[in-house]
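Weekly puzzle thread! Below is a chain. First person to post its structure in token form gets bragging rights.
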Amino acid sequence: MNVTMIGAGDIAYSHGRAVVKLGGRVIGAYDVYKPGLERYCAEFGCAALTYEQLDEYIARSDYVVVCTPPTKRLDYVEKVLSAHVPLYMEKPVAVTLEDAARLKEMEQKYSGKIIVGFAHRYRPAFQKLYELVSSGALGDPVNVFDHRVGPGFGFRGSPFSASWRTDPKLACGFTVESISHEWNLLTALCGEFETMAANIWCTIDSLPQYDTNFTATMKIKKGGIASITASWSSDLGSNLKGYIGTKGTAFLSGKDMFEFDQLTYKTEDMDHPVTITYNDSYKFNQDGVIFPIHQHFQDCLQNGTPICTPLDEGIKVLKLSLKALESSREHKEIIL
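Winning reply:
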């Protein structure tokens, strides 16, 4: 498939390599930062586009990847969807509900096909956990949790990398930008929530809008409770997704905040737990984590299968993040 890349930062390299591995090619790329764009185009042998060339290359594409900052993409999204070209959009889809509503209007107006880049949802280790839960083997949820901590941007005074995430004019914060993954994974396991109580804290004085610590507890609509603990202020990295159900328990764990090293589970009819070992590392193999979602999207486009993480999923998790910010700010539990 031919793909145009809008946004040529770090994650765009993994997107491009996934396209190439699947037998396609990146035909053009666009970025407002010209040195970065030139480096990207040198790796993929693609055209370095001007803004004026975007329409031409979008029309020649089987799909377009947009991985710009979430506050700088409405124009690009409309260019893609109005040309009736499918769109891969990095998360978060937006920062405000107003922008999210505009995205939804565009999707409906142009009958758009959109996948949102919740790449962790497609990783083999999480897919196995999801399979255990959705099969009913673990029963109904009792206590479902997501724990992810490690050293993040600006930790202990470390210099910020050149990233929109830490640009005061573009930063939307940990809760909106990164906790979107947690909402996506948890709701895949246990469904929607009735209530939420959250507390959020920032440890970087120079960038107060970039919160770095998050905790929330939720009541699950169909019964049971759920929680998230996340930090970019930890000297040690850890990743643990857990499902305690009425018929069994499963833990998916990793030694760093984005790693999946092993899945251990035990059901009521098993004498001993089973452990499956994975070499599923985002830190050391970001390309390998991004690949399965492109594989899924291309399958959807070629065979008409449903998209697992459509635009509605991106809007749903944005609403949850904004409700969490409201809960922390107002010191109250939110009815969802």
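Puzzle host: Confirmed. Bonus trivia for everyone else. The chain has two domains: 2-112, 120-284+310-335.
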